[in-house]
Amino acid sequence: MRLLAIQSLVGVAGCVGVLSAPALWAQTKGDPEIGAGIAARVCVACHAEDGTSPMPNTPRLASQHATYLVKQMKDYRAGRRTSEVMGNYIGGLSEEEIPHVAAYYAAQEAIPGVVTDPSVLKLGRRVYVDGNPGSGIPACSGCHGDEGEGTRRFPRLAGQDVGYTLEQMRLYAAGERTNDRGLMQTVADRMSEAETLAVAQYIASLMVLDAEEE
Ligand code: HEC
Ligand code: HEC
């Protein structure tokens, strides 16, 4: 929302012919106001206007890092990441539209996730914070952050839909999602089913709501 406010100011500056630094930033980084129009046309049916989908197994995009969102969309387009559902929709987006729609969803406020099995949160926390040295699982927090806030290279996980997380871990372990520079495939492959189920619940419980893009 803060980004949208900045965009309105840029609009005013543009009218009087001032090429301000924020205007340049908007051109290269994507304009959330333009993104809002694209999202409303195509994406809201599944990802919702606020980026927090009510549909099961559909990723939450709100407050996800824009750089990560851009990479995923480009990967779907180029076939480096495959999904029957997303594959059908990403083709309708032009290369130029991608940064705008990413900026839009990155600017949406996240809301708390939904934990469906609190009994496994303790194990989930242990896996997330410490990994499992015995089986060579690194701590998730080492890349995704203590609160699941992520960075531009490592996606935000906080509050993510449990079913979506489990599906991605399955795809990584099976070698079917391969756009992760090999990092997640190794991690997922080493995890037991109980550890995977538990960490997905713990991720849903993480509450950081507004991660800053570095
Ligand atoms: C018919 C439902 C549907 C529509 C419409 C749709 N998506 Fe998706 N989207 C999904 C599903 C399901 C996934 C998870 C697919 C997978 O497992 O790779 C997904 C995944 C994504 C991801 C990856 C998220 C992550 O955390 O890695 C991004 C980014 C994304 N969608 C953006 C968009 C944008 C932008 C649009 C509009 C142009 C859009 N989607 C339209 C259902 C949809
Ligand atoms: C060495 C760094 C590293 C560690 C440790 C790591 N990850 Fe990841 N993770 C990544 C990278 C890189 C990606 C994918 C980025 C991309 O597709 O561009 C990713 C992606 C993911 C995704 C997909 C997110 C989405 O929105 O689609 C999930 C889920 C995930 N990691 C869970 C975990 C869990 C659970 C752990 C701990 C058991 C973990 N990661 C440990 C680097 C790491």
Identify the notable features of this structure and list them briefly.
single chain, 214 residues, mainly alpha, Cytochrome Bc1 Complex, Chain D, domain 2, 2 domains, 11 helices, disordered N terminus, binds heme C
Q: What can you see in these coordinates?
A:
This protein is mainly alpha-helical and 214 residues long. It has 2 domains: 2-106, Orthogonal Bundle (Cytochrome Bc1 Complex, Chain D, domain 2), CATH 1.10.760; 118-205, Cytochrome c-like domain (Cytochrome Bc1 Complex, Chain D, domain 2, Orthogonal Bundle), CATH 1.10.760.10. The protein is 54% helix and 0% strand. The protein has 11 helices and no strands. Helix 4 (66-78) packs across helix 6 and helix 9 runs antiparallel to helix 11 (193-205). The radius of gyration is 18 Å and the shape is globular. Residues 1-27 have low confidence and may be disordered. One heme C is lined by residues 42-43, 45-47, 58-59, 61, 69, 72-73, 83, 85-86, 89, 93, 101, 155, 167. This is Cytochrome c class I.
